[in-house]
Amino acid sequence: xxxxxxxxxxxxxxxxxxxxxxxxxxxxxxxxxxxxxxxxxxxxxxxxxxxxxxxxxxxxxxxxxxxxxxxxxxxxxxxxxxxxxxxxxxxxxxxxxxxxxxxxxxxxxxxxxxxxxxxxxxxxxxxxxxxxxxxxxxxxxxxxxxxxxxxxxxxxxxxxxxxxxxxxxxxxxxxxxxxxxxxxxxxxxxxxxxxxxxxxxxxxxxxxxxxxxxxxxxxxxxxxxxxxxxxxxxxxxxxxxxxxxxxxxxxxxxxxxxxxxxxxxxxxxxxxxxxxxxxxxxxxxxxxxxxxxxxxxxxx
Length: 300
Prior knowledge:
The structure is a single chain. By secondary structure, this protein is mainly alpha-helical. It has helices spanning 11-15, 29-32, 36-65, 71-84, 104-113, 169-185, 197-200, 205-212, 228-238, 243-254, 264-280, 282-290, and strands at 93-96, 99-102, 118-123, 135-142, 150-156. Helix 3 (36-65) packs antiparallel against helix 4 (71-84) and helix 9 (228-238) packs parallel to helix 11 (264-280). The longest helix is centred in the N-terminal third of the chain and has 30 residues, at 36-65. The radius of gyration is 22 Å and the shape is flat. The two termini are 40 Å apart.
């Protein structure tokens, strides 16, 4: 149970608590002398903690995304919180392109809470081609010692991964395989962020054609290095930051009306500053970003 004065959803609160919706105490009631009323109190306590987590998730989601969240998205957030105990504060969720996605960290925490018996990951050698950095892995999740296992496959190559992870395609493929196996094992219909090809992949042919006729972006890169925009997007996803607030903060930091008006040197300086701030004091950075939120007019 969370300590006094501590918000549920922090790592210390998760350490010794169960968030399983169908939580049961596997003890012989009569032999151990535990009264039925005590069991019911324990179950009520679990549901109460879930209620606190739901309210916290909705509050944080509204603060980070604001008007971007529709009622359906909030209902989906409540449903997934009650069903699996995911926490927005811990980065178990990501909201992209008007939809919720689960993260690798959230899936691993869920497996830990569900007392997963183990995972086995193997390389599918016949489908791999190291010469072009193409890797395929097979992951098997065992929910219990007697489980036959839930299988998931994951692949990665330069065509469906970001330039920022170039050379790490093998690890990306392994992560994707584990995510798919965990989602199958625990019945999670949400796709994971790490599986998104359109988010981390190469531009489509149409996008390439459009980019070829556009003038060079001063904030981009033409020497094969990751674009500043990509680096900024990675930081936003990694630390679960609000992209709109980050852009407002960046414009203020660079002293320009909008971020696209800033020079490359200023944007590079801001990205370095943002990475340092997020790593050393994320909570302080979130408070700073919230100061750039537009006040919502209350209609009477």
